[in-house]
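A protein record pairs a chain with a discrete description of its three-dimensional fold. The shape at a given residue is found from the number at the same position. Here is what such a record looks like in full:
>
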Amino acid sequence: MNGIAFRSKIRAEVGASLTLALPLAAAQLTQSATGFVDTVMMGRLGSQTIAAGGLGATVFTSLLLISSALLSAVSPLVAEAFGAGDRAKVQRVLHHGLLLAIALGLPLSLLLWHAAPVLRALGQSPENVLLSQTYLRAVVFGLLPGMLFAVLRNVVAALSQPRPVMIIILGGTLFNIAANYGLMLGKWGLPALGLAGIGWASSLSFTGMVIALSVYILRYPHLRQYVGLRQLLPLPQVTGAMLRELLQIGVPIGVLAGMEVGLFTATTFLMGYLGTTTLAAHQIALQTAAITFMVPLGVSYATTVRVGQLIGQQKFEAARLAGYIGIGMGCLFMMLTAVVFWTVPEAIVSLYLDVDDPANQPVVALAQKLLAIAAMFQVVDGIQVTAAGALRGLKDTRIPMMIGIVAYWGVGLTSGYVLGVWLGFGGEGLWWGLAIGLAVAAVVLTWRFRAMQIRPSELSPAS
């Protein structure tokens, strides 16, 4: 009887997790299609453009992902408040989250505008830096809207309403595809802006999405009872206690994301140091891996919400089960993508470049090798991101931050540099470093979640 009851609990939790995870994963996957389409469009302008544009896109995406991760602190706080029926706290969290997004977005936008000297100092070629700057000075206007959208998206998902997020992101992605085509090539009477046109399309897309989600929140009764117009605007009534709570949870999340994103970004810079061919191949493999990563990332967000809601309802064993189920779903999906990477790498590369063009052969050959290595770390990448999501639901973020610093940089980047630069294995060696770092993170973060004592009085590691 106990076994039957346990299986029933598992089925119920899988159903509840999938209800949240499928729309959020679809939303993340759809949003990542923006970067995929950008890369494909860059490829139409040649290998030089895909290398330089990919460099700029990596910088922009890195800043957006890190800042959005920091702002994701609103998710466990809103989920727990929603589970406990505390409507006032939901409103306070949103209000302060929006203020924090603005406070972060303005200086980061200024940094993007002046990114060229930083890229030159990091050893990138003058040609790549010049082209990257044209992209960055167009896409920079989408950074703040993207951060505001991240806050609203996390709040809406934590209130168990993920479907509108998915629909709005789908609409934004379709708009971005059309705008990319029109602004890059000068179609439909629009100016032909080349690489800058791709950046402008992304900025317009992010702006449209945050406006659309704001309007939806104001019009939908279930959300409006938690989030009124007053909470959508950065009005006074800021409290230091709420900002501190957001930052205490969010800063470690942002640092952890920064460690992972920084691992890939630093690898991108090292690829640029090794040459344009290596950088272009890396961009193709990285963009492909980034697409598949969006699904377990969406599952991770759903896991945070489920664990947080169940903690708010004082259902502590159910919260632990929700965490394990989230980790299992992330692992299963990435096992499937690993098979695809391993079996059809040439078909994947052909989405970006003409594989029959002799001029592209060096890039095509290296990209296929990198995809084979990416297949190796798909599973551990899915495990580590969902384990981090489960820990976020427990508001456990400081120790995972330290784990990320050691795994991503102390192990991953160091081993990649040794293999790729010192031992001369080039781009392949750098990617093996990525695999090693992610594997370490997956093992230790999963162990951390297993070691946590989930009980009413405290949430702390088992002694």
Notes: The chain has one domain: 2-461. The longest helix spans residues 2-43. Residues 2-461 form one domain.
